[in-house]
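Hey, can you fold this one?
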Amino acid sequence: MSWGYGGAAVSVVLQLGYTAWTARVAPHSAFGAYAIALSVTQVPGLIATAGLTTCVLRAEQLSRSLFRAALRLSLLTGVCCWAVVEVAAPWCAALWEMPELTLFLRLLSCQYLVAPTGCVLLAALRRIGLPGYATVAELTGQVAGCVVAAVVLAHTGSPAALALALPVAAFATFGLSAGASVAKLVLARDSGTPPGSLLGLSGFLTGFALLRTLGASAPLWMAGRLLGPSAAGLWSRAQLLSDVPVNVLIKGLNQAAVPLLANRRNQGLPLTRPAQHLLYAASAGFVVFGALAGAGPAVLALLLGPGWEGAVALVPAFAVGAALQVVYAAGCALDLARGTHRDLILTQLVLLAVTGVGLVGAVGSREPLPFIAAGAAGLAVGHAVQLVRWRRTDTLDAGAVVRAHLTHLAAGVCLAAAGSWGDSALGGLSGATLAMSPVLLSCWLLRGRLPAYRAAAGIGLLGRPGRRAKKPVTVPVSRP
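Sure. Predicted structure:
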């Protein structure tokens, strides 16, 4: 877990620095087309990976037959998806009335030639207990992608250089993970999971991921189509500030929780305690994104510079949606580990229905905020459905999870209110930080009452406040 979160912290710094520089070089409309292209390529990207990463992480035993089947399937789906995007790119540009979208899509699709196979290799390294190699490969790839894109953008001035970061990162990560796999992977020579079984599970995971992507991307797609590329550009820059911690938290929770829950289920052990801890950890996102809602506008204004005031105003709304996204994703991880596939699909369909109703109501608006609110409403209702189902099936103590949500939400609201007041009354990031300091100090002093902290201390990750670890007592032994 330390490797995962350490690498994620470095990745956050890298992405924020890259964003700050590109925001001063590329125009708003270029970011809008780039954001639409990213969200569109997520759909074939899910088909390309085909849920294989989760299959490898959840495997009871990573055998050679399963590993080879995953590699072959990832290579096949990746090439097919690259070809589909190359052909469909002009049609997407015509649908959104953005001619520059064609080049963005074709450049971004090149990552699918190696990215799915690279994801399988990284998952295999993590599955056998070598997360350090996987983290180094991912970080090196990200650095290479950002450097190449920045150099090309600086020398040519073409906004299309923005789309080079992901393909370059994918190729670099693939090369490093392949080298580490050749040197370190030692797999059992048994039949393992047959390819047909792998196809069935990966097919379900792909379908479910497509539904989740549809729910997450529909607000941006509609806002980009109705409000134009400039509004989509403001959307993408504001969302990036919340997407960075969201991806870190969800990725860390999935990598830590999914293998653990899968192993306990395979061993016939109860899932109640780890499931409760998973939801408590996800609930802490209300505190994190409350702080982001308070200080995030000042941070984004500092990163992007002048001319991005419209994006700065959207940060608190995206922070609310990000906190809901984390708890909903944790619930999906729990249901996936439990093997309740039907519940996963039904919950996601409810989310899509609520989001769709909200988007229909937002059609007449000329501002992005109603579209963002529609997505947040879908996440809130979807998580409520999860809680009701867990209570009926005695999966966990749903009442305790709700109380944890309310406790962390109260802390997050206090942080958001203090930060917003400090930004407007005292001025800028320093004012927001100063205003939030008393709230942060109170949270630290009362950390023993935060359910997420208590859960972490209960499993030995943290020390309990007010208690010191007992020193071992040395008993003298008499010599004969």
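The two ends are 48 Å apart (CA to CA). Let me know if you want another pass with a different chain boundary.
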